[in-house]
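Trying the structure run again after the queue cleared.
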Amino acid sequence: MQKKIQKYLEDTVNSKIIYPLLSLLVALEAIFLHIPAEMFFMPLIALKNKIKYRNLWIVAVLSSVIGAIICYFLGALFFNGIEPFLNHIVPQEKIASTYKLMEEYGWIVVFVGATFILPFKLTVFVAGMYSMSFPVFITTVLIGRGLRFAISIWILSKFQKEFNFIFTKHFKLIILLSLLLLALIFWI
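Done. Tokens:
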């Protein structure tokens, strides 16, 4: 059974479907998945013999930007729907000051979310809620995600042999932990 699953994964990773599948997963990660996009790169880099890292980077960045755009507009739609109710709960001055802060410093928040530890989907949702300038938003997301994925792919490529060894030697454990992680994500 293990050999069949491993063979299926290897065939999938080495097939033409891998980039569209990766694109979908990375875009969904930018919208609502709680799994870092790098988790999708690891088996791809570990199992694919002649991967073109530039293609992986381009697919990851563009897919993440597409997901971020969708999440941005979801934030804008959500806020437009609740703004009349929010005006009754939160003083107008607070809403105005938050708009001003997003206008002045929103690009920093989005850059940190795109590059480092802040939840990316939350930062782009808030950017949409508070109508961050769309050209600034796109530029910041492109630069931030481009930088993050370039560093991630570079590190993963440097340790490809080690990842391959770990992935093939501890396959059952990796599958079990992945399933537990998925169950935990959908339970939360």
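Residues 53-89 form the longest helix (37 residues). Worth checking whether this holds up in the mutant runs.
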